[in-house]
Amino acid sequence: MTSTLSSVLNIASTGIQASQTALSVVSDNVANVNTPGYVQKKVDQSSEVVGGQGQGVSIADVKRVTNSYLEAASYTANAGSGSAGAVSSTMDQAQTLFGDPTESGSLFSNLDSVFSAFSTLSADQTSAGQTQAVSSVSTFFNQASSISGSLQTLSSQADSQISTDVGTVNGLLTQISNLNATISQGYVSGQDVTGAQNQQGTLINQLSSLMDMKVNSNGVGGVQILATNGASLVGIGGAASLAYDSSGPTGSMTITDTAGNTTAFNGGITSGSIGGLLQLRNVDLPATSSQLASLTSGVADQLNAIHNSYSSVPPPTTMTGQTTGQDIATAAAGFTGQTTIALVNTSTEALTHSIAINFDAGTMSVDGGATTSFTPSTFLSTLNSALSSAGGGSASYTNGVLSLSSGSSTTGIAIQDSSTDPSSNGGKGFSDFFGLNDLVTSSSISNYNTGMTATSATGFPAGQTMTLQLASASGALLKTVTVTTPAGGTAADLVNALNSPTTGVGAYGSYALNSSGELTFTANNNSGVTVGVYQDSTENSSGVSVSELFGIGATTRIQAASDYTVRSDIAATPSNLATASLTLSAGSGQPVLAAGDTSGADALGQAGLSTLNFDAVSGVSAQTSTLSNYAASISSAIANKASAADSAQSMASTVATNATSALSSVEGVSIDQELINLTTYQQAYNASARMVQAANDLYTTLLDMTQN
Secondary structure of 106-134 in the HEC alphabet? Predict the structure, then answer.
């Protein structure tokens, strides 16, 4: 009888202990009903059997109610929402910089104002009209420069935020790894580790908003975290650490494993806020900047092409061009056709001398006299002699810049190409190619139609180096190569060096000179690979680098296009605008320039209607279009990108909300269910307690009987 009562007491005691543990779990669940990321816990009970007989109940395990499928879906949705949010916010800011095209003050309406101002000047050439025309050009290019700078600021902000987020990621990985150790120790000793697991789950959820990843069980209660490319972030050996390098044209990532080995991690993060910021920094913002640069360059090129075809009244006594980045022999060798340099009396506007240059024949003549032959290497000296004989003028060429002087304060210079056989180099006339009468100037080379052919000398000594970075269409860094300028020095030699499959870009694409002498890159198999310049220490005799001369890399072109300003003397004196046409057929002693001639202003006013060829640039296809229509294409591309980003953000946010809701419905605490559990375990506790009391009463009765 005594042994039976002892067995009853033991069984009842196990029931009380089990009920107490279960009530503790229920209490914890209820207390954390509103705790974000908390996963409800439950107890697993099992019967105790000894010698085939029941000996009560025990708690086999206290565990969280998890759903690995829904958790993975939630992590993916969080990462997508983080990425879309980062992109949407920044692209909205980028679009705002350009303004609403339909409203006054936007970049595109200010471009329309440029053409409108010159059209007004064409009808009424007044001082006020000249000032307004120059002001409109300045406003457009100043605004474009400001937008370009603001886009660069957004890119720098993205760099800063990526670095901050990477630091946060490293802290989270370390905390998750440390909790792995705590959890595994408790797990193998049979302790309740659900509290630590919930802490770890909260950290993982935070991590999922920063980057995409895969989470697996490590078999001892903790987790293993892998990047989507398979790299281990958290494992048995501890946590890896990430690092971000923003110094190159492509922002790049590295990972250091637990053994201290550092390798490239580019493409390891494709989502989360870091993934979105990388997309912005390496793809979206450069694309927008490139679109702006393409438009700005197109406007500058067209205005300059027209302005170089006309002359101010009176014409300037000196002309100083823009750097071509070439030596004079290479530049002269690229020309075909004919042009005339006219020397004009600044008081009477009558022609005093003319120098006819025939590049096809390789000859010059002064005032229609005997021709003098020249070669590309003697072009400058021949031109200098011709100007000298025509009134003491001169020509010089320094650091790629051609300068002309009439030699007299009463004699101006005007240039006009032949109407039947105009001079041309890289698609530009003589004055336009050298920038002798540009309306808009830049301190950087902005004309990449070099006019070079395969045999042209580039002027770069052998042994100089430039480091290029190749990036995928998604912006991930693929490879860094160092190209060495080759012996030989021709454009073909340089192209071959660039296209080397080992030390150049040949494994991903190729460079080629087109018919205008522009160096273009074509990615293999339309892969979308791009080339950026990390470092360029090359320099030719004109003092420019390979990347500057040929416009290699989006950053090079973006920086050059952000530097346009109205030529300083025109900005100071708007009457220096070239609006008059040079009439070489005028009779002896008759004016060849007329102060009231507005033909140049009319041409500038119609510049927006000129049909031009535009290269493909970052989401805007190559096209033959008017300048105004191309501006509309750029405006549409920018607006569509921002709109698409907003739509993606809205959709991603909805997906994340739904994923969180689905996960919460399974893993979250239900008050109703917990109240049911509370009642159940309370009743079980009371029943076990009554069994203890009943056994105690029987013991007392038995003791009383034995004592009597």
Answer: CHHHHHHHHHHHHHHHHHCCCHHHHHHHH
Picking from 547, 93, 559, the residue whose alpha carbon sits closest to that of residue 284 is 93
pLDDT value at position 256?
96
Residue-wise over 420-434: b if at least 16 C-beta within 10 A, else e?
A: eeebbbbbbbbbbbb
| Three-class secondary structure of residue 608 per DSSP | helix
Residue tagged 């797990």 (tokens): 187
CB 438 within 8 A of CB 309: no
- In this prediction, residue 4 carries a pLDDT of 67
Q: CB count, 10 Å around CB of 103? A: 9
DSSP 454: T
Question: What's the first-to-final CA gap in the chain, in angstroms?
Answer: 18
Query: Would you state the pLDDT for residue 5?
Result: 65
Phi, psi of 480 (to 5 degrees): -115, 125
| SS3 of residue 436 by DSSP | coil
Specify whether the CB–CB gap between 109 and 99 falls below 8 A: yes
User: Whole-model pTM?
Assistant: 0.89
Indicate the residue type of 599.
S
Residue 144: C-alpha distances to residues 49, 107, 388, 486 (Å): 83, 7, 42, 38
Q: Which amino acid is at 70?
A: L
The pLDDT value recorded for residue 674 is 66
- The angle at the Cα of 183, spanning 180 to 189, to the nearest 5 degrees, equals 140
CA distance 534 to 482: 9
Distances (CA, A) of 646 to 90, 161, 254, 643: 10, 20, 30, 5
- ∠ CA 372-425-571, rounded to 5°: 100
Distance CA 657, CA 521 (A): 43
How confident is the model over 352-371, as pLDDT tens digits?
Answer: 999 999 999 999 999 999 99
What's the confidence (pLDDT) of residue 501? 96
Q: How many CB atoms lie within 10 A of CB 399?
A: 11
Whole-angstrom Cα Rg for the chain: 39
Query: Alpha-carbon distance 19 to 39, whole Å?
Result: 21
**Cβ–Cβ contacts within 10 Å for residue 2, how many?**
9
> Is residue 90 a contact partner of residue 158, using CB atoms and an 8 Å limit?
yes
Neighbours of 250 (CB within 10 A): 27
| φ, ψ for residue 237, nearest 5 deg | -80, -5
- Give whole-number Cα distances, 35 to 80, 198, 380, 664, 669, in Å: 23, 10, 81, 11, 10
pLDDT (tens digit, 9 = 90+) per residue, 36-81? 778 776 777 777 777 677 667 766 667 666 677 888 888 899 999 9
Residue 170 contacts residue 234 (beta carbons within 8 Å): no
Q: How many CA atoms lie within 13 A of 315 on its CB side?
A: 37
Q: Fill in the DSSP letter of residue 576.
A: G
Q: Which residues of the chain have pLDDT under 70?
A: 1-5, 41, 51, 54-55, 58-61, 63-66, 667-668, 672, 674, 681, 684, 695, 699, 708
Cα distances from 41 to residues 27, 28, 32, 670, 701, in angstroms, run 10, 8, 11, 11, 43
Helix (H) / strand (E) containing 203: helix 194-210
Q: Which residue from 139, 237, 142, 128 is spatially nearest to 181, judged by alpha carbons?
A: 237
625 burial via Cβ count (<10 Å: 0-12, 13-18, 19+): middle
Give tens-digit pLDDT for 116-150.
999 999 888 889 999 999 999 999 999 999 999 99
H/E run at residue 253:
strand 252-256
**Residue 509 three-state SS:** strand
Q: Give the CA dihedral 95, 101, 107, 111, nearest 10 degrees.
A: 150
Reading the block at residue 528, the tokens are 């979308």
